[in-house]
């Protein structure tokens, strides 16, 4: 990755040259991928508010949701500036249709039970933590600055959800059954995290994404340590379901958006 | 979504913990409330999520509520009333020389 003093830093925001224009498109794509991952997962977590199995988790889950939505806001605000079309962060969240979203499919999956939600959160955070850690040295100042905040949030998400994965996986017969069922359900969606394409390859070269091998190694290490304590089988990532980065989403996203976007769709420009 | 889960959290699996927060370095931990958690690690996490959402602290202690020995409310009068008539125990009858400054 390019260091903080690298002359390439902020290249993406120098929108005058042709090369910078290309990079700006890639940065825009990256911001929507990361922003959509965080917004959709944040919305899913927010659905637990008032429904968690205990009061403590009824606060913990929305806490994590707000961390994620905060990152989505940064991404959309920055994307709006790069795009320069006068859109606001709310426009990205509330006025785009399903096919315009670029999140991976795992984050839109329904919450299921508490074990399912915690395992999904653990897998997501175990991936995002090393990714943000790498981005603290990103060639773009704004991304690097936000990474410094997000990496701490993700460290807590890994810890909070990881401790639950361990206690449910290695808990009662019923909790262990549910955690294994969650792993079966989510398994096919894990591979999409590590997919690469031409955009992500250019972003790595430009210092706007960390080396995927480094991120994968950190993810594997975190997951292996936690799964061993949780009495879960070693994680094997095989061929799975993907398409989210290309805007191909499940029917469940339509239901999610119907609830999340209702207010702005029904009352355009409404504020509170 | 979670109605079935709620019945699976019996109190013996989720005992009560008392939570103490240190608001700033140099100050003492103060009791702020309690949480339910399966063990001490989860109790610290729950305390973090419930009691430090607005920047209330820099350190958390948790103690099993069952480990706390409390004074007997029935002994309140004999415990605490006798001190009420001994105002000379308050250090408010001494003249502090100006040179001493703030104490």
Radius of gyration of chain A: 19 Å
Number of separate strands of chain B: 3
Architecture per CATH nomenclature, i.e. the level-2 architecture of chain B: Roll
Helix/strand-derived class of chain B? alpha+beta
- CA-to-CA gap between the ends of chain A? 41 Å
Main pleated sheet of chain B = 3 strands, antiparallel
Number of spatially distinct domains of chain B? 1
Assembly state (oligomeric): heterodimer
SS field, number of helical segments of chain B: 3
Low-confidence stretches of chain A: 1-10
- Supply Rg of chain B: 21 Å
Provide the β-strand percentage band of chain A: under 5%
CATH class of chain A: Mainly Alpha
**What would the principal axes of the Cα set say about the shape of chain A?**
globular
Mean pLDDT of chain A: 93
Give, in order, the helices and strands of chain A.
HHHHHHHHHH
Helix content of chain A: 55-70%
Structural class of chain A: mainly alpha
Word description of this protein:
The complex is a heterodimer of chains A (272) and B (103). With 272 residues, chain A is mainly α. The N terminus of chain A is likely disordered. Chain A contains ten helices and no strands. Chain A has one domain: Ferritin, core subunit, four-helix bundle (Ferritin), CATH 1.20.1260.10. Chain A is globular and about 55 Å long. Chain B is α+β, with helices and mostly antiparallel strands. Chain B has one domain: Phenylacetic acid degradation B (Ubiquitin-like (UB roll), Roll). In chain B, strands 2-1-3 form a three-stranded antiparallel β-sheet. In chain B, a hairpin with a 7-residue loop joins strand 1 and strand 2. The longest helix of chain B is centred in the middle third of the chain and has 12 residues. Chain B is flat, with a radius of gyration of 21 Å. The N terminus of chain B is likely disordered. The interface between A and B is medium-sized, with 22 and 20 residues.
